[in-house]
Predict the 3D structure of the following.
Amino acid sequence: MGGPARGQGNPTHSPRRSWYATGMTDSQASTAEFAARAAGAFRAGNLREALTEIAAGLAMAPNDLPLLRLLADVAEAANDIGRALKACRQLAALSPRDPLVHVKAGRLRMRLFDNAGAAADFNAALAIDQNNTHAMDGLADALRIDGAADEARAILLRRAEVTGDKELRAATKFKAALTQPAVARDAAEFAAARERFAAALAAGPESAFSNPWRLGLGPNFYLGYQAQDDRSLQEALARYYTAASPALVQTAAHVGARGTGRPIRVGIVSNFYSAHTVGYLTFGLAAHLDRRRFELTLFRTPGAAQDGETPRFLKAAPLVDLPADLTAARAKIAEARLDVLHYPEIGMDHFAYFLAFARLATVQSVAWGHPITTGLPNIDLFLSVDAMEPPGAEAHYCEKLVRLRGLSFAGETSPVADPGVELDSTRPAYLCAQSLFKIHPDFDDALAQLLRRDRDGVVYFFSYSPHADAILKARLRQHLGGDIERVRILPRTTPRKFLGIVRAADVALDVPQWSGGKTSLEALSAGTPIVHWPGEFMRGRHTLAFYRRMGVDAPVVQSSAAYVDVATRLVHDKGFRANVRGQIAANSARLFNDAASIREIEDVWEAALAART
């Protein structure tokens, strides 16, 4: 969901292994005392006190290694990644042969979505110790997220060879099989990766997994961007993990029983109580759920980012930070004795994915933050939007498909935009603001036709990673030839500048294999028309629902030829452009602040609960 400019490309992954023990060995008793007090405050969750003790100790001994190591950990926990990286740089200067310093720095860079920089850090660690497993794990993660699938698989298979632990070896080999390309060189690469994944699932686990999250495993995030029906593979993945780790599938003792005379207890589990697209789609539900009928608790999974949007969630409902342990987290949620447990997405955050194997409430639902069936037997309802779903879509889901009449969220209009100075104002600007891993090879021909039709036009994308950018341009060059010179990949930018670029574009190009979500809402809010070609699955039809809600149909097409016709008309046919832009301006408010959608979800939950108790 959403464009890449907001830094949302990375799905959340498994925990970063501790890089140093907390024991202090400094010869100076005074600094050791500061370190001990800081470590105690850190364990107690008092980050401010821990940072104060560390600062006092470093004032006495600026190069104290235990204090600097602790500073990197505490600063990371406080989301001060810059400070943590600075501590790592100082440690690297003081201990140049310590590979774990570089591993720590690499994990920190990944939190900043600097996967290329992270890969350099992990490679620096491997230059010191070629068999350092922490560095191999990190490098594989960075490469995998950036879509360098072949390189990631090679690292993972090497990692499997050097470990003597049967469980870890089996998990690492399966992680290699999970690895999918982000931006594929062609459709054949997708097919080969799917075949490799399906074969691993059919073979079954080579070992039991005591804790798949701790082993770095999770859902197959990139699978959904291959424009195929993923239900059978999603269900097979759930069966694989259940066989390897039966403890994932548990039922809380209170499930099925509900007391009378109290509101329905609802919990929402997410990693994205922030400016992330999933947070945007979730906030209206958290803020506007009817407190006369429902009692709400937010549960935040480990490693969550916090930003300027987070305080709004904290104000909307009580928030519980889940412990970084699946067993303890399940127990914490079960303590709330929930009637309904809702996941805004399942498929991005690994911790939430594994939690969703368990039955922790009588009714469990998922929204379309990651718009693919979960494959999980204990998720009852998939809350979708009727106007997004094609006929017969029920077959795409293992959950009961709920076709909501509304858009399912109560989002707000976009904030003020900065000028889109990155676009060439002298030439027609066609902006495809989707993350590059959403640009399917089947869409390449439409782009080639568009640039052949409009000899002055320029197509703009946003960068995802150096590796992904290069693959996309090489792939497009095969279709476009010399017209590739009129394809520009813009750097990642700030949210306000992103909105300015969207506003400045003549036309936004939607992708039929994966339609824009928040990106489309931002474009329509800015008055920028979107050419939309509805795809086969719901994930390729979000913009269709938005246009239907507004009563606008002219930019909706059913073929590649029509796509090119409408896109060029929106640039060169002044009357057509003015009419479409006018309709969008007059009706885009219908997309936002839709409290009726929240009431509809409330009714769905209440009816589902009544049917199960």
Remarks:
- Residues 2-9, 16-28 have pLDDT under 50 and may be disordered.
- Residues 595-612 form the longest helix (18 residues).
